[in-house]
Protein backbone atom coordinates (compact mmCIF):
# COMPACT_ATOMS: atom_id res chain seq x y z
CA UNK A 1 0.00 0.00 0.00
CA UNK A 2 1.85 3.08 -1.15
CA UNK A 3 1.25 6.68 -2.27
CA UNK A 4 3.62 8.36 0.16
CA UNK A 5 1.90 11.74 -0.17
CA UNK A 6 1.93 11.75 -3.97
CA UNK A 7 -1.21 12.30 -6.03
CA UNK A 8 -2.00 9.44 -8.44
CA UNK A 9 -4.68 8.85 -11.03
CA UNK A 10 -7.34 6.21 -10.45
CA UNK A 11 -6.36 3.26 -12.64
CA UNK A 12 -7.06 -0.45 -12.58
CA UNK A 13 -3.71 -1.34 -11.08
CA UNK A 14 -2.79 -1.92 -7.44
CA UNK A 15 -2.11 1.25 -5.50
CA UNK A 16 -1.70 1.83 -1.79
CA UNK A 17 -1.92 4.15 1.15
CA UNK A 18 0.55 6.63 2.51
CA UNK A 19 2.73 5.96 5.52
CA UNK A 20 3.53 7.84 8.70
CA UNK A 21 7.08 7.47 9.94
CA UNK A 22 7.40 5.68 13.29
CA UNK A 23 9.35 7.45 16.05
CA UNK A 24 13.02 8.03 15.18
CA UNK A 25 14.48 5.68 17.82
CA UNK A 26 13.01 2.22 17.19
CA UNK A 27 13.38 -0.40 19.87
CA UNK A 28 15.20 -3.50 18.66
CA UNK A 29 14.74 -6.59 20.83
CA UNK A 30 17.77 -8.85 21.07
CA UNK A 31 17.82 -11.90 18.80
CA UNK A 32 16.52 -15.05 20.41
CA UNK A 33 17.84 -18.40 19.22
CA UNK A 34 15.55 -21.38 19.44
CA UNK A 35 16.96 -24.76 20.42
CA UNK A 36 16.25 -25.91 16.87
CA UNK A 37 15.43 -24.06 13.70
CA UNK A 38 16.50 -20.67 12.37
CA UNK A 39 17.59 -17.67 14.40
CA UNK A 40 14.49 -15.67 15.35
CA UNK A 41 15.11 -11.94 14.86
CA UNK A 42 11.70 -10.48 15.66
CA UNK A 43 8.38 -11.93 16.71
CA UNK A 44 5.10 -11.09 18.36
CA UNK A 45 2.59 -13.76 19.39
CA UNK A 46 0.04 -11.15 20.57
CA UNK A 47 -0.57 -12.94 23.86
CA UNK A 48 -1.41 -9.80 25.83
CA UNK A 49 -4.51 -9.33 28.01
CA UNK A 50 -7.89 -8.76 26.37
CA UNK A 51 -8.30 -5.12 25.38
CA UNK A 52 -4.63 -4.23 25.69
CA UNK A 53 -2.86 -2.39 22.87
CA UNK A 54 -0.04 -4.04 20.91
CA UNK A 55 3.31 -3.99 22.71
CA UNK A 56 4.57 -0.37 22.51
CA UNK A 57 8.12 -1.71 22.53
CA UNK A 58 7.41 -3.40 19.20
CA UNK A 59 4.70 -1.30 17.50
CA UNK A 60 3.78 2.29 16.69
CA UNK A 61 0.02 2.95 16.23
CA UNK A 62 -0.30 5.46 13.39
CA UNK A 63 -2.51 8.35 14.58
CA UNK A 64 -3.92 9.66 11.29
CA UNK A 65 -4.30 9.09 7.55
CA UNK A 66 -1.82 11.09 5.52
CA UNK A 67 -2.71 14.01 3.28
CA UNK A 68 -2.13 13.25 -0.40
CA UNK A 69 -0.63 15.96 -2.58
CA UNK A 70 -2.56 16.61 -5.80
CA UNK A 71 -5.08 13.89 -4.95
CA UNK A 72 -7.58 12.29 -7.28
CA UNK A 73 -11.20 12.41 -6.10
CA UNK A 74 -11.03 9.26 -3.97
CA UNK A 75 -7.82 10.37 -2.26
CA UNK A 76 -9.19 13.70 -1.07
CA UNK A 77 -9.41 13.80 2.74
CA UNK A 78 -13.23 13.67 2.89
CA UNK A 79 -13.20 10.39 0.94
CA UNK A 80 -10.67 8.70 3.24
CA UNK A 81 -11.66 7.15 6.56
CA UNK A 82 -9.63 8.20 9.58
CA UNK A 83 -6.88 6.20 11.29
CA UNK A 84 -7.39 6.17 15.06
CA UNK A 85 -5.40 4.77 17.97
CA UNK A 86 -8.05 3.83 20.53
CA UNK A 87 -8.57 0.32 21.89
CA UNK A 88 -11.84 -0.11 20.03
CA UNK A 89 -9.90 -0.17 16.77
CA UNK A 90 -6.58 -1.81 17.62
CA UNK A 91 -6.21 -4.25 20.52
CA UNK A 92 -5.24 -7.75 21.64
CA UNK A 93 -8.22 -10.06 22.19
CA UNK A 94 -6.86 -12.13 25.09
CA UNK A 95 -6.92 -15.28 22.93
CA UNK A 96 -3.57 -14.77 21.24
CA UNK A 97 -4.60 -12.42 18.45
CA UNK A 98 -4.16 -8.80 17.45
CA UNK A 99 -7.39 -7.23 16.18
CA UNK A 100 -7.48 -4.26 13.82
CA UNK A 101 -11.04 -3.02 13.36
CA UNK A 102 -12.75 -0.63 10.96
CA UNK A 103 -16.04 0.95 12.03
CA UNK A 104 -18.89 3.08 10.73
CA UNK A 105 -20.38 5.97 12.69
CA UNK A 106 -22.21 9.22 12.09
CA UNK A 107 -21.03 11.98 9.82
CA UNK A 108 -21.39 13.88 6.59
CA UNK A 109 -18.69 12.06 4.58
CA UNK A 110 -16.39 9.04 4.60
CA UNK A 111 -13.74 10.81 6.70
CA UNK A 112 -16.25 11.59 9.44
CA UNK A 113 -18.21 8.32 9.33
CA UNK A 114 -15.47 5.67 9.06
CA UNK A 115 -12.39 4.80 11.09
CA UNK A 116 -9.69 2.15 10.73
CA UNK A 117 -6.23 1.57 12.16
CA UNK A 118 -2.63 0.91 11.18
CA UNK A 119 0.39 -0.28 13.15
CA UNK A 120 4.01 -0.12 12.06
CA UNK A 121 6.82 -2.18 13.56
CA UNK A 122 9.67 -0.52 15.44
CA UNK A 123 12.09 -3.26 14.40
CA UNK A 124 13.79 -3.07 11.01
CA UNK A 125 15.08 -6.06 9.05
CA UNK A 126 17.15 -6.39 5.90
CA UNK A 127 18.34 -8.90 3.38
CA UNK A 128 18.82 -12.48 4.51
CA UNK A 129 15.51 -12.65 6.35
CA UNK A 130 12.20 -14.49 6.11
CA UNK A 131 9.01 -12.69 7.20
CA UNK A 132 5.82 -14.60 7.97
CA UNK A 133 2.48 -13.79 9.62
CA UNK A 134 -0.73 -15.73 10.22
CA UNK A 135 -3.64 -13.49 9.29
CA UNK A 136 -7.44 -13.67 9.01
CA UNK A 137 -9.26 -11.04 6.96
CA UNK A 138 -12.81 -10.68 8.26
CA UNK A 139 -12.96 -7.38 6.41
CA UNK A 140 -13.54 -8.28 2.75
CA UNK A 141 -16.33 -5.77 2.24
CA UNK A 142 -17.07 -2.70 0.16
CA UNK A 143 -14.83 0.21 1.04
CA UNK A 144 -12.30 -1.72 3.14
CA UNK A 145 -8.62 -1.87 2.18
CA UNK A 146 -6.64 -4.32 4.37
CA UNK A 147 -3.02 -5.36 3.97
CA UNK A 148 0.02 -7.00 5.57
CA UNK A 149 3.12 -5.34 4.14
CA UNK A 150 6.69 -4.18 4.63
CA UNK A 151 8.02 -0.72 3.86
CA UNK A 152 11.06 1.51 3.76
CA UNK A 153 9.69 5.07 3.74
CA UNK A 154 12.85 6.80 2.49
CA UNK A 155 11.45 9.39 0.04
CA UNK A 156 14.55 9.21 -2.15
CA UNK A 157 15.17 5.47 -2.23
CA UNK A 158 12.26 3.62 -0.65
CA UNK A 159 10.46 0.40 -1.40
CA UNK A 160 7.48 -1.68 -0.36
CA UNK A 161 6.44 -5.33 -0.30
CA UNK A 162 2.72 -6.15 -0.01
CA UNK A 163 2.56 -9.77 1.12
CA UNK A 164 -1.24 -9.71 0.90
CA UNK A 165 -3.52 -6.83 -0.04
CA UNK A 166 -7.25 -6.72 -0.80
CA UNK A 167 -9.22 -3.88 -2.38
CA UNK A 168 -12.83 -3.10 -1.53
CA UNK A 169 -13.27 -0.86 -4.57
CA UNK A 170 -14.73 -3.70 -6.67
CA UNK A 171 -12.17 -2.88 -9.36
CA UNK A 172 -8.58 -3.83 -8.58
CA UNK A 173 -7.67 -7.52 -8.12
CA UNK A 174 -6.25 -8.62 -4.79
CA UNK A 175 -2.78 -10.09 -4.61
CA UNK A 176 0.89 -9.70 -3.73
CA UNK A 177 2.99 -6.79 -4.99
CA UNK A 178 6.59 -5.58 -4.89
CA UNK A 179 7.08 -1.81 -5.34
CA UNK A 180 10.60 -0.70 -6.26
CA UNK A 181 9.42 2.92 -6.13
CA UNK A 182 7.03 4.45 -3.63
CA UNK A 183 5.10 6.38 -6.29
CA UNK A 184 3.70 3.20 -7.83
CA UNK A 185 5.56 3.48 -11.15
CA UNK A 186 7.82 0.42 -10.81
CA UNK A 187 6.18 -2.75 -9.51
CA UNK A 188 5.44 -6.42 -10.08
CA UNK A 189 2.17 -8.07 -8.99
CA UNK A 190 0.85 -11.60 -8.62
CA UNK A 191 -2.94 -11.41 -8.76
CA UNK A 192 -4.71 -14.08 -6.76
CA UNK A 193 -7.95 -14.48 -4.78
CA UNK A 194 -7.97 -13.58 -1.09
CA UNK A 195 -10.51 -15.08 1.33
CA UNK A 196 -11.47 -14.71 4.98
CA UNK A 197 -9.89 -17.95 6.27
CA UNK A 198 -6.72 -18.09 8.36
CA UNK A 199 -3.60 -18.14 6.16
CA UNK A 200 0.13 -17.67 6.60
CA UNK A 201 1.84 -15.22 4.24
CA UNK A 202 5.60 -15.63 3.91
CA UNK A 203 8.41 -13.79 2.09
CA UNK A 204 12.11 -14.64 1.91
CA UNK A 205 14.49 -11.81 0.98
CA UNK A 206 17.76 -12.97 -0.59
CA UNK A 207 20.43 -11.39 -2.83
CA UNK A 208 18.80 -13.21 -5.75
CA UNK A 209 15.34 -11.72 -5.18
CA UNK A 210 12.09 -11.91 -3.20
CA UNK A 211 10.19 -15.21 -2.84
CA UNK A 212 6.58 -15.61 -1.66
CA UNK A 213 4.51 -18.44 -0.17
CA UNK A 214 0.96 -18.82 1.06
CA UNK A 215 0.45 -21.46 3.79
CA UNK A 216 4.08 -22.56 3.50
CA UNK A 217 5.06 -26.18 4.02
CA UNK A 218 8.65 -27.53 3.80
CA UNK A 219 9.61 -28.18 0.22
CA UNK A 220 6.85 -26.01 -1.25
CA UNK A 221 7.79 -23.89 -4.27
CA UNK A 222 7.03 -20.14 -4.04
CA UNK A 223 3.89 -18.98 -5.85
CA UNK A 224 5.59 -15.70 -6.81
CA UNK A 225 9.23 -14.74 -7.37
CA UNK A 226 10.60 -11.28 -8.17
CA UNK A 227 14.26 -11.55 -9.22
CA UNK A 228 16.73 -8.98 -7.94
CA UNK A 229 17.07 -5.91 -10.17
CA UNK A 230 14.13 -6.99 -12.34
CA UNK A 231 12.35 -3.67 -11.68
CA UNK A 232 13.62 -0.16 -12.36
CA UNK A 233 15.26 1.52 -9.35
CA UNK A 234 15.37 -1.76 -7.40
CA UNK A 235 16.34 -0.75 -3.83
CA UNK A 236 16.19 -4.12 -2.06
CA UNK A 237 19.88 -4.98 -2.68
CA UNK A 238 21.17 -1.60 -1.53
CA UNK A 239 23.65 -1.88 1.35
CA UNK A 240 21.85 -1.21 4.63
CA UNK A 241 18.35 -1.21 3.12
CA UNK A 242 15.79 -2.30 5.72
CA UNK A 243 12.00 -2.45 6.10
CA UNK A 244 9.44 -2.50 8.92
CA UNK A 245 6.27 -4.64 9.10
CA UNK A 246 2.82 -3.03 8.79
CA UNK A 247 -0.75 -4.23 9.39
CA UNK A 248 -3.73 -2.03 8.57
CA UNK A 249 -7.32 -1.63 7.47
CA UNK A 250 -8.00 1.60 5.60
CA UNK A 251 -11.53 2.65 4.59
CA UNK A 252 -12.20 4.62 1.42
CA UNK A 253 -9.38 6.13 -0.61
CA UNK A 254 -8.42 4.75 -4.02
CA UNK A 255 -8.27 1.14 -2.90
CA UNK A 256 -11.49 1.12 -0.91
CA UNK A 257 -13.66 3.80 -2.51
CA UNK A 258 -17.34 3.82 -1.47
CA UNK A 259 -18.00 1.91 1.81
CA UNK A 260 -21.76 2.59 2.09
CA UNK A 261 -22.77 -0.94 0.98
CA UNK A 262 -20.12 -2.58 3.17
CA UNK A 263 -20.59 -4.48 6.42
CA UNK A 264 -19.02 -2.81 9.46
CA UNK A 265 -17.41 -3.33 11.88
CA UNK A 266 -14.86 -5.23 9.81
CA UNK A 267 -11.78 -6.86 11.34
CA UNK A 268 -8.31 -8.17 10.57
CA UNK A 269 -6.92 -10.68 13.05
CA UNK A 270 -3.22 -11.49 13.36
CA UNK A 271 -2.22 -14.62 15.26
CA UNK A 272 1.51 -13.99 15.07
CA UNK A 273 4.34 -12.45 13.09
CA UNK A 274 7.84 -13.96 12.98
CA UNK A 275 11.01 -12.83 11.25
CA UNK A 276 14.02 -15.11 11.17
CA UNK A 277 17.39 -15.38 9.49
CA UNK A 278 17.35 -17.08 6.10
From TrEMBL:
Gene Ontology molecular function, alphabetical: glucan endo-1,3-beta-D-glucosidase activity
GH16 domain residues: 23-278
Gene3D superfamilies given in the database record: 2.60.120.200
Stored PROSITE patterns: GH16_2
Regions that span the bilayer: none
Top EC class for this record: hydrolase
InterPro entries assigned to the protein according to its UniProt record, in alphabetical order: Beta-glucanase-like (IPR000757), ConA-like_dom_sf (IPR013320), Glycosyl_Hydrlase_16 (IPR050546)
Pfam families: Glyco_hydro_16
GO BP annotations listed: carbohydrate metabolic process
Superkingdom of origin: Bacteria
The enzyme's E.C. designation: 3.2.1.39
Alphabetical UniProt keywords: Glycosidase, Hydrolase, Signal
Signal peptide feature range: 1-20
Family listed: Belongs to the glycosyl hydrolase 16 family.
Protein name from the UniProt record: Glycoside hydrolase family protein
Source organism (scientific name): Mycolicibacterium aurum (Mycobacterium aurum)
Amino acid sequence: MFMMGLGVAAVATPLGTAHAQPPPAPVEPPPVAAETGPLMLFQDEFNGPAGSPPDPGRWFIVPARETIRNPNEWDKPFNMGRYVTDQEHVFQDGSGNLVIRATRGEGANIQEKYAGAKIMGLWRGGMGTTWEARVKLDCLTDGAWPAFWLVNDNPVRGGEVDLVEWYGNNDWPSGTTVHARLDGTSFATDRHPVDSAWHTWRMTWLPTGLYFWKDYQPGMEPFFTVPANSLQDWPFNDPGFTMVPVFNIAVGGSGGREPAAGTYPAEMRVDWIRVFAS
